[in-house]
Write a structure and sequence with these properties.
This protein has 2 helices and 2 strands, in the order αββα. The protein is mainly alpha-helical and 131 residues long.
Length: 131
């Protein structure tokens, strides 16, 4: 986790000043041997912890995206009016007719506009002879 990564970073900062790099040179040959202590092991552990934290963050982001997609699908299903047209009613969200005008009666005019009448299916703003 991030807390463990920070703790390892501070531990590494405390240990680094006390680590030794010893160099041994022999006089009879020209071979130089260098030995490093656990510094590389601590650095590798810190890198592994950082990679694990990044993988956990990516998994959390993927889970959040999946939850958002599921919520969007649930919201879309909740607004479906269960008939064969593509409208959504303004009154009770259940459209029982098969026209696409968005109201609950069986005529083909949209009664949500001002001046519409559900009884005769006319609109006072329509010209005579035009629908």
């Amino acid at each position: 986790t991030l807390l463990q990564l920070q703790q390892q970073k501070y531990l590494l900062l405390l240990v680094l000043p006390f680590t030794n790099t010893t160099t041994t040179t022999t006089t009879t040959t020209t071979t130089t041997t260098t030995t490093t202590t656990a510094t590389t092991t601590a650095a590798a552990a810190a890198a592994a912890a950082a990679a694990a934290a990044a993988a956990a963050a990516a998994a959390a982001a993927a889970a959040a995206a999946a939850a958002a997609a599921a919520a969007a699908a649930a919201a879309a299903a909740a607004t479906d009016d269960d008939d064969d047209d593509d409208d959504v009613d303004d009154d009770d969200n259940v459209d029982d007719d098969d026209d696409d005008d968005g109201d609950d009666d069986d005529d083909d005019d949209d009664d949500s506009r001002p001046g519409d009448s559900e009884e005769d299916g006319t609109n006072k703003y329509q010209l005579r002879g035009f629908t």
